[in-house]
User: Fold these one by one.
Assistant:
Number 1:
Amino acid sequence: MGVAMEGMIRLKGLSLAFPGVQGLTRVLDNVDLDIAPGEFLAIVGPSGVGKSTILRVIAGLARPNTGTVEMAAPAPGRRAVSLVFQDARLLPWRTVIDNVAFGLEKLSMPRAERRRRAAEALTLVGLGDLVDRWPHQLSGGQRQRVALARALAVEPETLLMDEPFSALDAITRESLQDELIRLRAATGRTILFVTHDIDEAVHLADRVVVLAGSPGRIVATHRITEAHPRSRGQGRAADQAKAIRASLDGEVLINGAAT
Amino acid sequence: MTLPSLGRSIAAPVFGLAVLLAIWEAIPGLGLVNPAFLPPPSTLPAAFLRELASGQWTLAIRNSLGHYTLGLAIGVLAGIAFGIITGMARFAEAVTSWVVRVLRPIPGLAWVPFAIIWFGVSPSAAVFIIAIGVFWIVYFATHGAIRAVDRDLIEVAEAFGFRSAPERLLKVMLPAATPGILVGVRTAIGQAWMAVVAAEIFGVAGLGQRMMQASSLIATDIVVVYMLTMAALYGLLDTLFVRLQTWVLRWKA
């Protein structure tokens, strides 16, 4: 990892292939992408196009065959990036607050400080009074909020979100989307958000990058300038969603594709 | 049967035990079997009091509990340690796969000659036999539980920077494997009592030795007293362990 401009992530020539049944399966092809500090960037595309792989590479969970990820080293007591998965992946043997403090245990700090920051992150996601619950006592939406708090507690320069709301029911999903917009306004975090839901991307992001093809490459970039709060599926949002769908023409059906 | 549920939950097992005792009392009492071969339960309290008065009972229990505790502890700790190593490291699993297949089927009793040669007729020999019996149970439980840990949770640890093997072990694998390991330990708590008898049969002082002495004199009432003693000790330990297990796993749904 090289050094980039403060708070920025720069992907250069990222390509990646997995060994599969018939030799190598290429997943990403020469992806270049800059994420500006404070930006909310969404990556949309059909299943299997390598959207999640980009996040996994940035999070250090996968290694590209070629290409580089440049980002600045984090300040002490923070992480450069943290990841919210599609499913909450809470550790069932830890209480809610201990789950949120999990990542802080790697950033050497006293226990009292860990608890303070974890409690703060839980308050931020509206679960301040569930600190001592076990994960199995929570609803799906609450679990995903805890996962979000866990990612926020390490105060990442960039928050990586991998289809974080796709496993939730529509009502919970919309309320969490609006909460994310509020959180972003409150914290100013850079967010890289992967989804296969174009409407979700248009509702949330400042910029939408369309990934398509096999192996996946960036086929279009759309800037969403409309201020929040945005209307869902009407007016400009609908036009922009339509434009994004057009840039995916000829690719597999996107909406409702399972991952 | 209109007993309230609490009454019924106590009444049913008591009733079962009472039926067992009644049949047991009746068989020698009706002359179906020689009482010397099957001592009726009514003769047991007197036999027990004789053992207690002579100090044999207390001494045997103290000796056996010593072997049991030490053998169980060594076997459980070694089983957990080796299970973790072969569960986490493919190389260790490959190297040991046939060693395990060769050693695993050897019954505890078959180790007795070696235990005597290596340790003499001593408490160490008994501890060795018990530890071996316990080791395999806990080893396989731990190995399986570690291998079954959800990959997704290990990835969470990696995503938050816990990348070394000890970090992965302590932060995710060990807590995630704990339910499976505890199932093995509970089985071991029972298995270790069987090993106690095998381990003491050749003359190391304790319950097993006392049972062998009594049985060679056809003092069957004494044999039964020690059988019941072992059952009581096992019942007590198992109950305590289940309490501990429930508390440790209180996070489970």
Note: The helical segments of chain A are 51-58, 96-100, 111-124, 140-153, 170-187, 198-204, 235-247.
Number 2:
Amino acid sequence: MRLNSIKFIATALIFGLGMVTIFIFSYLTYINTMANLEEKYHKESALVLKHTLLSFQNQFESTEKVLNILAETGELKLINSAIDKQSLNSLLERFQKTVPNSRVMQICLKDGQVYMGPWMQIPPGYDPRKKEWYIQALQAKGAVVWSEPYLDYMTQRIIITAARQFTTPSGDIAGVLAIDFDVNTISNVISNSQIGENGFVMLLSRNGTVIANKDDYMIGERIFGADFQNLLNSKYNGELDYTIKNLQYHLKFDTIRRNGMILVTAISRAEINDNLFKAFFPVLSTGIACLFIFCVGAYFLTLKAIAPLKKLVSLMKLAQNGDYGVRSNIKAYDEINSLSNSFNSMIDSIRKRDKALKELNSELANTQEILKCNLNEMEQSQRILKASEERIKHLAYYDSLTGLSNRERLIKKLKQAIEENINTSGAVIYIDLDNFKKINDTMGHTVGDKVLIEVARRFNNTVDYENYTARIGGDEFIIFINGITSMDTVVEVADKLVKIFKEPLATDSKSFNLTASIGVALFPLHGSTAEEILKKADMAMYKAKEKGKNCYQVFDESMHAEIILKVNLENEMRQALKADQFTLYYQPQYNTPDKSIYGMEALLRWDSPSIDQGAPLDIIKAAEETGMIVDIEKWVMKNAFTFAREINAIADKDIKISVNISPVHIMQSDFVGNVWNSIIEAGVDPGFIGLEITETVMMESFASNKKKLEEIKKLGINIYLDDFGSGYSSLNYLQNLPIDYVKIDKIFVDNMLNSDRDGRITATIVELAHNIGLKVIAEGVEREEQYNFLNLYKCDIIQGYYMSKPVPRGEVLKLLKFTTNNCLEQYLTDW
Amino acid sequence: MRNKYILIFLLSIMLLLWGCSGSPEKISIGIIPAREPERMLNNFEPVRAYLEKEIGIPVTVTVPDNYFGLIESMNQNKVDIGFLGPFSYVTAEKQIDLEPLLFAARKDTGTSYHSLIIARKDAGIRTIEDLKGKKFAFVDPGSTSGFIIPSALFKSRDIDVNQYFSKTIYSGSHDSVVMDVLNKKVDAGAVADMNLRRVMDYAKIGNEEFIAVWKSDDIPGSPIVARADLDNTLKEKFITAMLLIHEKDPQAIKYFDSNIEKYVATDKSIYNGVRNIANILGEEFVNEHFLQKNQ
């Protein structure tokens, strides 16, 4: 049973109420019974006291009366004169019988004689004069004295004695009369008086000594001790509670007026309590039994009463555990019914709420699902973004085609290596594929790309050292090797790189023979910055190309000097262009048969103090390399074309002016435009113009160059194939190129007279050119024999010192004088 | 919470049962040396064995030197049940809570006996007055018939013992008093009549040897006293056993004291007479001669 349950509370309530009732009831009964009992005992006690008091008073009165009478009898008065033992004894016998309970009466004379009646044996040693009562009686004159209990001389029993003096007729003390009482006998009187079971009646002497008691108990004892005198005080009013021998008593006492003895009645407290308990026990036990029955009854009644509640609780527990299908159909008391109805309504509400919650929940779940999807998508996007980022990062640092590093990454790594490893050495190997452009041009970019991929793969397989291989341009690669220990290592790597191109590169069943030019620069030997080293490797690579390609070249300082020179040259050329330091010389070309001027080749002259005049080829080369050639040639075309307009304006026959065009210029996309602009600018008839090209122009980008030349040709400009016979001298060129003139190289002209073979080749060339409709110009004709030979073999035009050296513009007129009229001369003088 | 209450309830029940069932494992009996201690032990042995059998727990017997020793032993819980004399009982009662259980009913004197003052017949002593100036023997200051009752006699006669006799001695036992008188160590002595008769029977002394100068009133027989706190069941068992000993084991009682017919129940009030005499003699007297003397 839990403490805070209705069962407990109800039972406890009944129990508590029952307890209180029983307590009050019991208390009242107790008080009542107690009062009754006490009253009964007190009454009894008072009665006994009164009765016994009267009885003792009577006895003592009669005793004293007897003693008084005896004292006045004649016999005693005469006792001294006429002693008759017999008569005395009979007197004593007669008188003693009148005193109830007395044991013996004695007459004690002054001289020690004692008379006790006829039957008493008096021991010889007995002398009453020593006794207390005798002495007291003598002093008490005519009054009766009562002794304390003492042991009898004769019987050794405990006795008390009442004594009185008697006198002679003359008034002298004759002796003492005494009556002995056995306390035993006195007690017997009292023993018949009952105060309950354990109560008692006691006779006390004036000094408080017990004289008589029920069953002779405590005789001779002074039970009150020192309290005795207080006991007699009036304040107790004859009643008090006192403990005797560890037992509690209620005492009543009274004094016997005659002799001052005290009579005490005692009620035993314990007895009263015992009786109280006896009377009270049935009441109490009945009460407790009732209480028990009430409690049990209350418990079960409560149990029955709260059964519907319990049922409701169990229903609620079901609901608590989630079963909202429960319904209460309890019918009991109004309160319970109301509770039951409320419960049902509550369950209904909960069910409604649950339904709503469920819907809400599913909505939430849907939302969550959607959110989850969104999250997934976001994560996906993030992944893609990350991948893109990676890719962008890769693109930023890697070549998309080959997967090698790109320029940025390489430079970064190189810088890093230089900065971090001050004490180590490294090498930068600059690789340029020779003639790769041709593959792109002929096979298309797709094939070119595949070749590049294959090349990259081979690079990766070749270099064992810590390296970064990068593709930095179309066909340019850089391998950066860090931590090399000796030059030999670098040479070994470079050798290997050259050799990997010995194997043909195979892609899609096609194979190509490719070579590479390789430049090597070392750090810190060749520079302390990445840019410097890269530049120097680049220089070395160009040097390798110059040396004939398919080889490697380690950078040395002479290359640098060369470059410096070139740079200076470029600057000076630029200056020269600005300052108009260039001049054009014209070398006439003559019709071979009649030695009349056919045309002129414009030749560039540069009067620069710093430039060695003997190296015009170097200058051209330098100009080509730096790209200055385009500007220079534009300048040349402008002046030469203007000159062509002017000279043809005054000349009586057409004079063709030809200029040399560098292959570099032709490669320029705006080459045709430049030419056309120059013509427009000069206002010249294109028919007076000739462009001299070399075979080398056709080595690269043959198709596009050919197309450009064809466009030039369509404009009406004449095209000369220069230096024929010095290079490949392919007949293919003669046939396919849109050329008008073939210029036989000076080497042939120089040797044709000495070598029969060269002579024949020259003749064949002329004949061949003629056969395909081309005119032939021989260069470097210096001697008459040469002229004759060329004339013999019908070479159309000759050029050279035999006829005229290149002359400045002013002298051209002089040459023309020989062939033109005065008008021309006039004009030239003015100009 | 509930368990706690149950626990407390059980504990109190157990405590109650334990309190009730605390019965002693043995019982100790003390007897006064009416004779030599060894003989007392030997004579009592059949009774002891009988009691052990009847009560069902070990019974031990001790024989202290004197009455005072026995009272002390009971006071110190060393002795549960003592064979006291009437006077030693009423004296001990002032210190210890005691309960008289039984006393002997004798074949010749019944439940009471008497104190005698005996003298050799040839000594010429016939009255108390004749004892003046003679040598006198008491039994023991704790003895009723051997000291207290004779003292009451001397008191009633206003006799100061120390002045009246030429010499007084305590012989230690009734038998010794008899022997001391017989052997003329003293002229007269106080002795219980039952003891005198037994000694005379035992020692084959003829009636002609002694003369009783004085005989007291009836004295209630010596009580067998138990400490009041002794287990009630045990007390009952002991009382029952002793009440039936004359039927169940007459030999045992005969061997102990052939004069005893049987044991009968007694109560406190029977000894009121002795108490009263002690009262009259006064507390001082008792203390002087009995209690203080032995301390």
Note: The two ends of chain A are 144 Å apart (CA to CA).
